[in-house]
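Chapter summary example: a protein plus NAI.
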Amino acid sequence: MTVPIAIIGTGIAGLSAAQALRDAGHTVHLFDKSRGSGGRMSSKRSDAGSLDLGAQYFTARDRRFVTEVQRWQAKGWVAEWTPQLYNSHGGQLSPSPDEQTRWVGTPRMSAITRALIGDLEAHFACRITEVFRGEQHWHLQDAEGFTHGPFSHVVIATPAPQATALLAAAPKLAGVAAGVKMDPTWAVALAFDTPLETPMEGCFVQDSPLDWLARNRSKPGRDSHLDTWVLHATSAWSRQHIDLSKEAVTEQLHGAFAELLHSVMPAPTFSLAHRWLYARPATSHEWGALADADLGLYVCGDWCLSGRVEGAWLSGQEAARRLHESLQ
Ligand code: FAD
Ligand code: NAI
């Protein structure tokens, strides 16, 4: 009987590794603490339709990722988003069109990882608390006290702080992951009955608590009957207000939005706030992935590269490549 490979994390890095390993003939079992896949590319179902609270769109610059995104497009999992872009600088709002191609999952961001899971074996609502080695193989302990295994190798595809906690068996790798600082992002979604009077569909913001805002409904395939918006605070503002209540965060970012539009904004008919504790690595790295091939432990995620969707996908490919090569 073949002993499967365990992958912890069903974000885009974990699924990228899973696909590559399966294509190379391996059996993989996936684990995620959340109820669904996607991690920071997940979408929240709500009374205002489904909302992309994490990754807003992604760009493809590396040739390998460009090819992969074309494959996703052919399958209908992604589509191009061509928002009317603005820039807000020193309180001045101005159109800021460009030629960049931007992709989104359709009909929601999480459609991509959901499709990539396909028929792979995945355990959700399963938080792994320990990765340990038996005589020959690896085992995973979860928060409910259950043990999973045996596994021939383990790929850890979580944000760096969560990877550190799982790397007790590999102190060197744990040390590297522990050195990666990840910044938080507060995200707020607002929905209005009457569409706001602005042609803006996306805005890069400076000199404000806000960093970015998007008209969620302007993305292809979204079906909300309301005018939905997603606002992201800057890392600095999010850190300063990390323990503020969701109500207070919503109020403050709603206020910053009104200030940016120079208008009295109606009260939203729906709002929600989400705190991403490990939203983005404070600096980017060029590790590709981390590995201890002798032990059979691999680590990947956006923080091993650019801190973007593309970096996370490439990191998953790199972890899979190194694992597969160690067996040749
Ligand atoms: P994640 O998506 O974080 O996946 C890790 C998974 O591991 C999660 O599903 C988590 O539940 C699971 N997990 C963690 N610990 C455990 C455990 N102990 N046991 C089991 N499971 C566990 N990128 C862009 O390219 N463009 C953007 O516009 C953009 N905007 C962003 C906006 C926000 C607010 C945020 C938060 C991120 C944004 N990003 C953007 C970054 C992008 O989302 C990430 O780079 C990418 O999704 C990271 O993928 P990943 O697989 O490395 O990690
Ligand atoms: P991109 O090329 O669209 O944007 C990169 C950066 O260039 C933007 O942040 C913005 O500062 C600037 N920019 C691009 N087009 C612009 C325009 N038309 N007008 C004014 N400024 C413009 O996309 P890329 O390189 O794929 O980056 C992904 C985006 O995801 C970035 O905006 C990044 O800030 C964001 N991100 C947010 C995270 C969070 O936690 N909030 C985490 C990771 C990424």
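Key point: Residues 309-326 form the longest helix (18 residues).
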